[in-house]
Amino acid sequence: MVGTALTGSHAVGDGDRWSDIDLVLAVRGDIAAVLDPWTARLYDEFGALHHWDLSTGTGIIRVFLSAPPATQPAR
Known about the structure:
This protein is an alpha+beta fold. The protein has one helix spanning 31-46; strands at residues 3-7, 22-26, 48-55, 60-66.
């Protein structure tokens, strides 16, 4: 991983209950070596319910659906 960014309304302190969290990981080299552990972590620790991938030619945008905070597992 060569860079990360947290973007969107939550990143600037302007989020509300309908806002999402946008996390960008910049990867050089083997994308799976970074994507696979992060995917597992989002399911295991943050209650992800489903994900899908959007191809960008040389990259991937992986989008996660998670449960509302009140129904997420305790950490």
